[in-house]
Design a protein that fits this description.
The chain is of the alpha/beta class and about 290 residues long. The protein is built from 13 helices and 10 strands. The structure holds ligand C2E and magnesium ion (3 copies). It comes from Methylorubrum zatmanii.
């Protein structure tokens, strides 16, 4: 493509690229320090059952406020970690925050509230994600059934490279969700290949579906697919009461979005558990 853009154009592109690379490099440098100093955080966003009243799981989302560049988007952060050779350190850090949340939930009696962790295909391909995760859960005495892995298909080839590790996790009892379904890459074949338990409808199909017939038809189709293949369907990106009502009327089993609950620091989530989820079962509490 560069050949056709001509000289001037190329310089412009070059300048933009230079700035982005510069920012990338600063983030790479800052990242190991941020990890060491605890400047990196993991926030959690609730996912609700059909009624929209009770949370069934929490999605872990990494957060980094860079002293100069402000909030770094998670995909940029993951990319910077890869460039800096910190992929495994970052994954271990996030896993640790996830496990801490799982332990806190259990000590409060919320035994059935699970936590979902995003793992990119690149991370999955590069490091022994399955061994790391199963090892940590075992060491902490946490059951595999309370953890879920969300994976996004980014290119057609991804799935083959990560299939073995995902299957190992799945066989051990960890649930697998195919994220961002319907965003352009996700395929029906991968749902089967990955033995996914869940499919998350990309928010580009969900946000504003009340006003968009084409979106509603696509969401309806994914809901049908879920019933046919015995997959749990989650709609993400619910921003309004209208869209929530539309999805409820369509029979969508799981819901996530700013209208229902924003990503929040772990402490804030733990403080609002009583309103997020059904009260803990007193019998279970006694047994814990
Ligand atoms: P995702 O897994 O699809 O996560 C959902 C994203 O949508 C999150 O953005 C969340 O804050 C946002 N979101 C949730 N509800 C709404 C809504 O109603 N409206 C809108 N507009 N947005 C909503 P976030 O945290 O910026 O993460 C972006 C992506 O980065 C994630 O997409 C995920 O693919 C990746 N990511 C986030 N955290 C991690 C992580 O710890 N590890 C890895 N590998 N990837 C991560
Ligand atoms: Mg996700
Ligand atoms: Mg998603
Ligand atoms: Mg996404």
């Amino acid at each position: 493509a560069a050949k056709h853009t001509g000289r001037n154009h190329f310089r412009l592109f070059d300048e933009g690229l230079r700035k982005r690379l510069e920012m990338r490099r600063e983030c790479e440098r800052g990242l190991s320090q941020a990890l060491a100093e605890g400047a990196l955080k993991v926030w959690f966003q609730p996912i609700f059952g059909c009624g929209g009243r009770s949370a069934t799981s929490l999605e872990a989302l990494v957060r980094w406020h860079h002293p100069v560049h402000g909030w770094v988007s998670p995909p940029d952060l993951i990319a910077a970690a890869a460039m800096a050779g910190l992929t495994e350190s970052l994954l271990r850090f996030i896993l640790e925050q996830v496990c801490t949340m799982l332990c806190a939930l259990r000590s409060r009696g919320f035994h059935t509230l699970s936590v979902a962790m995003n793992v990119s295909p690149r991370e999955m391909a590069q490091i022994p994600v399955d061994e790391i995760i199963l090892g940590r859960l075992r060491a902490l005495g946490l059951p595999t059934t309370v953890l879920e892995i969300e994976i996004t298909e980014e290119t057609a080839l991804d799935i083959e490279a990560v299939q073995g590790k995902l299957l190992a996790l799945s066989r051990a009892g960890i649930r697998v969700a195919l994220d961002d379904f319907g965003n352009g890459y996700s395929s029906l074949a991968s749902l089967r290949q990955l033995r996914a338990d869940r499919v998350k409808i990309d928010r580009s199909l969900v946000t504003g579906l009340t006003e968009a017939e084409d979106k509603r038809e696509l969401v309806q189709a994914v809901l049908g697919l879920g019933r046919a293949l015995d997959l749990e369907v989650v709609a993400e990106g619910i921003e309004t009461a209208d869209d929530l009502a539309t999805l409820q009327a369509m029979g969508c089993p799981f819901m996530q979005g700013f209208h229902l609950g924003r990503p929040q620091p772990a402490d804030d989530i733990l403080d609002s558990l009583e309103t997020l989820s059904d009260r803990p079962d007193p019998v279970r509490l006694r047994g814990a």
